[in-house]
Amino acid sequence: PDARPVSSPEGVCSRGGKCYACKKGYYGRQCDQECPKNCPDCVFDDNLIQSPDGETFLPAGTCPDQCKVDFHGSRCDQPCPANCKKTAGWFNRKRIPSCKKEDGNCFECHDYKWYGEKCENACPTGCEDDQCNKADGLCKGGCKNGFFGAKCDQQCSSGCKGGGCDKENAKCDDGCKAGWRGDKCDVPCPEGTG
Fold first, then answer.
1. pLDDT > 80? residue 83
2. Mean per-residue pLDDT for 113-130?
3. CA distance 59 to 62
4. Which residues share a beta bridge with 53?
5. Contact call for residues 174 and 168 (beta carbons, < 8 A)
6. Any idea which of 63-67, 114-118, 125-129 has the lowest mean pLDDT?
7. Has residue 4 got a pLDDT over 50?
8. Is the CB of residue 142 less than 8 Å from the CB of residue 166?
9. What is the rounded distance in angstroms from the CA atom of residue 67 to the CA atom of residue 26?
10. What region does 21 belong to: left with phi over 0, alpha with psi -120 to 50, or beta?
11. Residues contacting 95, CB < 8 A, separation 6+
């Protein structure tokens, strides 16, 4: 069997042919099964490594650590969601993946243009630079001209001169166009008045 030597009176395997450890990239008591491509240091055998919940053990052939590439799942073989920020960088000489191994939730969203646990929602089109916060979809900056509200998803009145209004209360920035009145320039003037 494919095994690296370990300290044992019997050598690298038992008299019955079961290995004590495998070469990198293999697992199982016979060291005849290949570890997942993205996890060459997979669990050698059942009931050896405790899972993160502290109550169960990881099955043979699964990854004991966070996935090192843009994949998730017990075997690091499921791609992270498309809108996750890809491989966020390095921490303590380990590459930070783009999503959590356990559930595939993104650590950050690509270009801050998405929100939600899996970055499944596009930021509101009224946000400046189309950027919003991952957790709640609120705009990172202000609103584009013509939009208001916390998510900049409401349009200013068409009666606003210049099209812009206050992000909080929708009052027109530059007053009303001819034919409109009120703080929000949303009330038409009576016929025959300016």
1. yes
2. 95
3. 6
4. none
5. no
6. 63-67
7. no
8. no
9. 17
10. beta
11. 68, 69, 87, 89
Q: Return the residue matching tokens 């998405």.
A: 114
For residue 131, CA distances in Å to 45, 138, 146 come to 46, 9, 16
The tokens for 88 are: 């966020």
Name the 3-class secondary structure at 184: coil
Q: Is 139 helix (H, G, I), strand (E, B) or coil?
A: strand
Q: Which of these, 98, 163, 157, 108, lies nearest to 132 by C-alpha position?
A: 108
Distance CA 113, CA 126 (A): 12
Q: pLDDT tens-digit profile of 26-79? A: 999 899 999 999 899 999 999 888 888 788 999 999 999 888 778 999 999 999
Is 17 in contact with 2 (CB distance < 8 Å)? no
**Tokens representing residue 152 in the block:** 């900049």
Token digits for 73?
């799942």
CA-CA distance, 135 to 49, in Å (whole number)? 33
68 residue type, one letter: K
Structure tokens at 112: 């801050």
Query: Using 50, 70 and 90 to split pLDDT, how confident is the model at 93?
Result: low
Cβ–Cβ under 8 Å, residues 63 and 101: yes
